[in-house]
Amino acid sequence: xxxxxxxxxxxxxxxxxxxxxxxxxxxxxxxxxxxxxxxxxxxxxxxxxxxxxxxxxxxxxxxxxxxxxxxxxxxxxxxxxxxxxxxxxxxxxxxxxx
Length: 98
Hints:
By secondary structure, the protein is of the alpha+beta class. It is about 25% helix and about 40% strand.
């Protein structure tokens, strides 16, 4: 399992979360599924649904000169999202995220 950290910029707010996954694209999809609209100002359930649709075919860009750091962005009706993803660690035993 890998630990991935997500830093999302959305409508003036910065939101940070982490997920465990086997692969990067699995982590991106899991991250989207775990987002709570009530915790993200202006997102709404409809906005989350749009976000999940965008993540189906998302293309991540490697950040030049960085190892294990990616970026993706897209727009939904509620606004523009910019997300950095960092593979934080390799782990053998999954720990509880709070």
